[in-house]
Amino acid sequence: MKQYNLIPLKLHFKKEIFWMLFFLFSILSLESIHSQAEDVVSIEVDLTTEKGEMKPIWAWWGYDEPNYTYMKDGTKLLTEISNLSATPVYVRAHSLLVTDEGPRAALKWGSTNAYTEDAKGNPVYDWTIIDKIFDTYVDRGMKPMAQIGFMPKALSKKPEPYRHYWKPGAKYEEIYTGWAYPPKSYKKWAELVYQWVLHSVDRYGKEEVESWYWELWNEPNIGYWRGTTKEYIKLYDYTADAVKRALPTARIGGPEVTGPSWDVSEEFMREFLDHVTSGKNYATGETGSPLDFITFHAKGSPKVVNGIVQMNMSNQLRDIDKGFEIVASYPQFKDLPIVIGESDPEGCAACSEEDYPHNAYRNGTMYSSYTAASFARKYDLADHHSVNLLGAVTWGFEFEDQPWYAGFRDMATNGVDKPVLNVFRMFGMMTGNRVAVTGDLAYDYQEITNNSVRGTKTDVNAIASKDDGTAAIMVWNYHDDNIEGVPTNVKVQVKGLPKARVLMHHYRIDKENSNSYEVWKEMGSPQNPLPEQIQELEKAGQLKLLTSPTYITISESTSTIEMELPRQGVSLLKFSW
């Protein structure tokens, strides 16, 4: 047998292993460096390139339960909402014409008893409760988006059963009772509307009522309207005519359909727009009907996947995209104001987390980061379709005397603000014109509209504005999956700040800042917190500075601000000079 000298071979083998390991280590090191580099997201803001007006499209709110308006926590929250906006906030509420049956206020229920009839069938008008609701708005400098609905019992084509007693966990269809039906008499309905507008002018003045928006019904393409599309159009003709007869300069709109991307909703919306353009008016016999603004709804669709809440922003944005597309296809309506009458992560504000686990996003920072990211894309979609987006109503108010942090879609719980309200406080500091935002960004409005925010990369992006002597940049770190993630290093490069001493305020919403929910959990999640605990929670619910205000000297054309932004966190950089 031939003998071999194994020592040189062993040495050679060891050298091969050494170089292989060295080469592998080098690759891993480079990949690690590259990975760290990818973790730094660069956002470039150009204050010299304007994109259009920073309209306060976010300064619109709505809710099902109108009688919460004047209750203790309702008045407190409305005061806070009014105070966060430099411009008047518009408020839309259901059930302003619903007849009393049992307690006025309950989940998904409200009433005013504005219209009843005497024994001879003559109208009896009582504006006491409607006045109480609208007084609460007007006293705070807010404006009603006056929803004309629903059907009073005395006018309903099918009045029984009228009152529903829905609670979380029950079937949603149970709410569609006698208030949802067409009127027995369209003339009596029109007279009710006419008298309501006349009364409003008498009480608040012509100039004030001219600044309101009157709109008919809610989501008539689903159970909220138990009539046909043609019956809704007929009701609209009588309603619009009555509004204009009472105040010719009043603004009236519709049709408040939900889900424009659904075939049945698009069909409803187009039939309505075709009619107000060229159809025979049911009330006047003339061609067409008045239309001063157009409304529709858009909702997301969260679900629980492997025990984790997963949002679906694309569902909401697709509805907005389709709604804008429909409006833009009518040249005569292309410049008409659009109000997205409800624009939310999902459909049911009164559905609690306990009964609907996918609503677990509502108490914490996922709702706030979703709100920042989605509102920015509403501006982008309006730009894309060249339409006139006036407002997007957040359908989330408060629920009086409910358990603490029960997971309703609301801005506050028992008078304590949730993190989401602080995003609107941030928006309230963004005025003037929107400016260009670019950079190495994983998502834009089109990508999220098509695919939402999935995969390994989060949506780290920004919206920015500039006004006389100020600029503001909102930066968020959003993902559809409600899980913990590592923070992202963000480098914000700002072009166009004046070469001077500039004061910067850095506000933050995250787990440690502007977050009453985390403080409540640290307390042990008390359902009967002590007065001093409530005081602490109220303080924690306000918008907080991440650091002290800082003066920075701007000497170059581009300035850089670096931050570490947690997942589902939102920052606002506010510059003033």
Automatic annotation (TrEMBL):
Signal peptide: none annotated. It holds the Pfam family Glyco_hydro_39. The keyword Hydrolase applies. Residues 43-542 form the Glycosyl hydrolases family 39 N-terminal catalytic domain. The keyword RNA-binding does not apply. Keywords: Glycosidase, Hydrolase. Belongs to the glycosyl hydrolase 39 family. This is Beta-xylosidase. The lineage of its organism: Bacteria, Pseudomonadati, Bacteroidota, Flavobacteriia, Flavobacteriales.
